[in-house]
Amino acid sequence: MKKIFVCAIVFAFIHAPALAEKAGDEAAVLATLDSWNRGWAEKDAALAVQDYADDTDWTNAFGDRFQTREELQEGLEFIFSLDFVMAGDSADNEFEDVIFLTPDIALIRSKLVRQGQQFNTGESRPDRHINHLRVLERRDGKWQIVSHMISQAQDKR
């Protein structure tokens, strides 16, 4: 029994740094959602894209695609200038699932609901249930978004 206890203590000391590192990585990966969400709330394209790689690949729910951070920032500046798009507000993410494929590659799957957005006619849109899938890569010690795909759940009725 004493040997089992000693083995358990040794095992815990060996794996504790790895667990702490993974928790730190998960927090750093999830922090990229904060800058994106704050950028949208503040209509600040530079803030929204601060965690994107220079060679990022981004596609929204309408099929618009940008393949660099610079293109994405310019695209968001245009999107943020559209009052009907920026009408309303987004709630907090309903979930933020993180999966590490390797120590340096992570996926985040998240969902939020956008309420009060409008069509370009000014008519109110139904609530939009928006899913995000992001691929992040640790580059030079920093987590960067290298791919981001957005989809919208459609009412099935």
From TrEMBL:
<dbReference type="InterPro" id="IPR027843">
    <property type="entry name" value="DUF4440"/>
</dbReference>
<protein>
    <submittedName>
        <fullName>YybH family protein</fullName>
    </submittedName>
</protein>
<feature type="domain" description="DUF4440">
    <location>
        <begin position="30"/>
        <end position="145"/>
    </location>
</feature>
<dbReference type="InterPro" id="IPR011944">
    <property type="entry name" value="Steroid_delta5-4_isomerase"/>
</dbReference>
<dbReference type="InterPro" id="IPR032710">
    <property type="entry name" value="NTF2-like_dom_sf"/>
</dbReference>
<keyword id="KW-0732">Signal</keyword>
<feature type="signal peptide">
    <location>
        <begin position="1"/>
        <end position="20"/>
    </location>
</feature>
<dbReference type="Pfam" id="PF14534">
    <property type="entry name" value="DUF4440"/>
</dbReference>
